Give the backbone structure.
Amino acid sequence: MTITAVIPTFNRAALLEQAVASIEADEIIVVDNGSTERIAPAGARVLRLDRNYGFACAVNRGIEAARGDAVAIVNNDVVLSPGYLRLLAQSGAWFATGKILQQSAPDRIDATFDLLARSGCALRAGHGAPATEFSEARPIAFAPMTAALYRRELFDRIGLLDESFDSYMEDVEFGLRAARCGYQGAYLPAATALHRGSATLGAWHPETVRLISRNQWLLVAKHFRHGGEKRYARAVLVGQLLWGLSALRRGCLRAWLTGKWQAACTEIPRWTPGDACAATELSDEDASLQLDRILAASESELLRLTAGSAFWRWYAWLT
């Protein structure tokens, strides 16, 4: 299997150099999202965009240019351990990711896999937990595109990232599409990497809050409309308001409201498995039940892992 690594970047040239140097792939493509810094890492082919179109667009341009049988999507602030991508490739899954550790605190987890609640809110499982935890390999539905490997064929079958998401939650939406078409991924903790995290905007930056707030609603509008409005309405309302309160506590209420307004002004068509998977012929009722199963399993695990979180305790109680 040949592997192409795709790294979207906006400035941060020094971090990018470290990321490229750690990648063992047959081809490395850096997609420069209109950086103002000089982007020319050794050993990589650079695709230059005329401005910052966001993560999803940059990744898609990289996938389109990739020559490998598999495509790795790697953040510009990640350092992979030796053999990381080859280990993921050996899983045989449609996509795979490893255990991502915090660069500033390698004894702590940054990311493992994602989980999605019926509210449209997602959780990065294991974030902040000791690095000794989440040590078992397992199947997953959602892989964070921090450092993940995908069979090229998967993009051919279900489509590229949804560019209307721009940045944030585009990987969750892609994972939900894959799950609804029956494609499963793998989490392999033996493969490790270091992630600086929030290197472009920073944690709880107003722009980050705006994008997440908007994209939570876009995901709901795109996928939760198989008669699911009534079934999920309470969970969506509760989850979104609680997330808004979290933004308020951090001084980002205006960004949260702006994101919701922008989502309300965006027309996004309902997605069904049949839209992308010719082999998936489900009635609306069957597709609705299938979505219920995916979300129920994901939310159940999410609530189990976050038993100590006030946010998720309130969510569970109110829903």
User: Anything to note?
Assistant: The chain has a mean pLDDT of 92. The radius of gyration is 19 Å.
